[in-house]
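User: what does the whole thing look like in 3D?
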Amino acid sequence: MLSKGLVLMTNCATPIIVVLSGDDAYGFRDFGDLILSTNYPTESIRAGDNVVFLIEGGDIPITHRVIKLHEKNDGSIKFLTHGDGNHIDDRGLYSSGQLWLERKDIIGKVKGYVPYIGLIIILLAKFPLLNLLISVTIGGIS
Amino acid sequence: MHSFLSRLNTLFAFTISVLAVLTIGVFISTYFEKYHETVSIGVNKPIVKHMTDYSANRKKNDLGVLQLNLDMNLNQLFDWNVKVLFLYLIAEYVTPTNSLNQVVLWDKIIRRGENARIYLHDIATKYYFWDDGENLRSNNVTLSLAWNIIPNAGRLLHVPANGSTSFIFSDQYTTSRAASPKSSS
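Assistant: Here's the predicted 3D structure for the full assembly of 327 residues, as structure tokens:
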């Protein structure tokens, strides 16, 4: 559904993400918000950044904040993420035995945010018939 | 334009257009805003403990313990495109094995409308200051505050505050019996 041009431009496989679980509930990442992210390889990720990552073997991207970062002298970096509204860090979400995220697990860095627009996308995805209904109604009126 | 449905359609389309224009307007009008502010950070009694980190690799790592003083007034930052401010305090340091370490020690959420004056004295860090190894003794650590501007719509900005501070950890380990953050030693 996303234009391939946008994927190329942002270098990110999932440049637009709709938030499905609004567990933070403080005005950011609420249910139905739209998040725009990029994944430029030259851009460094620092503590405090909101990153999009995939757990190995997982298929749902998670958007959380980096709270710890250790970069070794050889250039390898490990990250720990934490959901803003959660009491504990994300280690429980990582695959068993995994304590840190690596750069390859991170598929994007959150850059922009538009509220509520995602609700329409969620609605259309959940009720494919709605698509048909809207098209028919608009076709009938105009 | 007489039928009920066509009126409803027009109203709906108009509402969406107005909302879209407002959203874009809010985004463009604050695009060049810098959101800088000065803060005051202080550190008391930085000590290093050597303990087993059960939350990570279950080895004995260095644990830094310190108390923070934070003083700032961020009411000026809330313009019409700032919904929430997410503040975070980063401790940044270098060790012989790691060229860069960043650990968030404290964070806070300030929603629009809440009081954005912060005056905290002698508070413990919100998160544990575990090192990835055993290299905190005599280490020069820089504490800097930054905020994540969460807009109504637009870019998610990370702005570093003016006013960071540095401190050096003690060169000896402190055992739990000798000192805890609340005792005066």
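In plain terms: Strands of chain A lie at 16-18, 34-38, 50-53, 62-72, 77-82, 101-102, 106-114. Chain A touches chain B through 33 residues (CB under 8 Å).
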